[in-house]
Amino acid sequence: MAFAFNHAESIRSFKAAQKLDPSCAMCYWGEALALGPNINVNSDGKVIMSPQNRVAAFEAINKAISLSDNVSQKEKAYISALSSRYDGNPQSNRDPLDMAYANAMENLSRTYPNDNDAASLFAEALMNTMPWNYWAEDGDPKPNTVKVINSLESVLESDPNHPLAIHLYIHAVEASSDPARAEKPADRLAKLVPGAGHLVHMPAHIYWRLGRYHDASLANIEAAKVDEDYIAQCNAQGFYPALYYPHNVHFLWAASTMEGRSKLSIESALKVSKYVRVEQIKQLPFLEFFHTIPLLSYIRFAKWDEILSYNKPIEEFKFSLGLYHYARSVAFASTGDLKSAESEQQQILPLKDTPEIKVIIKAGQPSDKLLEIANHLAMGQIELSKMNLDTSIMHFKMAVAVQDALPYREPEFWYYPSRQSLGHALLLNNDFEEAINVFKKDLENYPRNGWSYYGLYKAHKAIGNIKLSDEALTQHKVIWQMSDVKLKSSIIY
Asked: Is the backbone peptide bond immediately before 411 cis, with ω within 30 degrees of 0?
């Protein structure tokens, strides 16, 4: 379960094992391992641990040490390495501890070069020293990322089905310029551990990057089912049901939206929004985004009545309020009420510097930048409705620039590629060559997306590129087979 990032369940299992065999040193080692930091619990770019977990992990590893007289030399090495990760101080700087553990695991993996668990745990330990920050801005791997990838690839060469190695390998390379190197491992992982929802979900991270949106949808449909069954059976509490399960449904929403499946997109959006409760958001502010995605689905599929009848978020949820005003602005602009559209748009940007937004930023979500994108898109839509196309295009270009500078995440921080709105405005302005370049760039970033293939078809057709327009339309039709909407441009509205 630790390999599947269900750390709470892993701890429960190791504690149950301790009751069955109180002299089992490695049962306490396992508890200490699962109590440790991981890449998905971070703040200000660093992994974090609660004070309670710091103390509990220190106690568990010391218990393992006290029971280690009769364990093997390799098990002693595992225990010794993990002991460097904890000092029992709830407030100490964790950076040197995390690096000490990574160094210890590197030494252990060299001592036991055929131990694939050791090599995988070394890679995880090193990833924890730089969570979600594995690649430089120029696309090159950071020095420690090279170590991570080399270690994981050595494991997969000897054991292609090692679940932790595949899990970490997907995370290590998904943001790279060559995510396809993890495609075959991702395909294997899909059925490797069918009872671990997060591992069932993980292939979607690669499928998304490769334009396999339908496969990403299927992976998350199955992962959601697995996790729903687990949560119901165990009455699971804590971080896993609060984050990992809704992440599956969130990812399903993103993938189905990219497929043009409005019914499934809206259904998934409503499901995850209802699942994440107000009290959870108050404890974990970054979960607030889950509350906003019904509005985003409604915008994507031009459901203006649903937007205008949507309940206003509570006042303390500033990010939700910002997207609420954005959605209403786009809805009013698209239905001809420009005065109301401008009134709503003017309420977006003042929210980005509020204390509530700064709390979410600290948790790793650039909500201020997302509100900037929303503001530019709203202004672009307002100007589009006025047929001030040059001004509209300017705002859409500004939205694209902010979106391009966002940090990596899957699903991405912003809900759709802003280039699709830019391309649409360029088509209306008869800037067909520039529109072609915009759609091509969007297809580089989001391969095989039917929205931009349709825009590309329209642009090529407008200037008489019959062969290229036919090719783009054929691609669109193949990709759009599951869709329940018909496009007239690269966006619906």
From this structure: yes
pLDDT of residue 125: 99
What pLDDT, on the 0 to 100 scale, is given for residue 472?
99
Contacts of 142-146 with CB under 8 Å at 24 or more apart are 145/172
At residue 364, the pLDDT reads 87
**The predicted structure's pLDDT at residue 234:** 87
pLDDT of residue 236: 78
> How far is it, in rounded angstroms, from Cα 297 to Cα 257?
7
| Residue numbers of the domain that contains 329 | 276-416
The last residue of a domain, from among 416, 435, 457: 416
Helix %, strand %, coil % for the chain, to 5? 70, 0, 30
> Do the beta carbons of residue 36 and residue 67 sit within 8 Å?
no
**Total count of domains within the chain:** 4
Please state, in angstroms and rounded to a whole number, the distance separating the CA atoms of residues 480 and 266: 17
Strands 46-47 and 42-43 come out as antiparallel
The angle formed by the CA atoms of residues 317, 319 and 320, to the nearest 5 degrees, is: 65
pLDDT tens figures, 99-139: 999 999 999 999 999 999 999 999 999 999 999 999 998 99
Q: Which residues of the chain have pLDDT under 50?
A: none
**What burial class does residue 488 get, using C-beta atoms within 10 Å of its C-beta: 0-12 exposed, 13-18 middle, 19+ buried?**
exposed
Single residue among 219, 249, 274 that ends a domain in this structure: 274
Alpha helices in 24-50 (DSSP H): 25-35
| Spatial CB neighbours of 479, under 8 Å, sequence gap ≥ 6 | 213, 259, 448, 449, 450, 453
Cα–Cα separations (whole angstroms), residue 206 to 184, 197, 253, 306, 479: 10, 16, 16, 33, 17
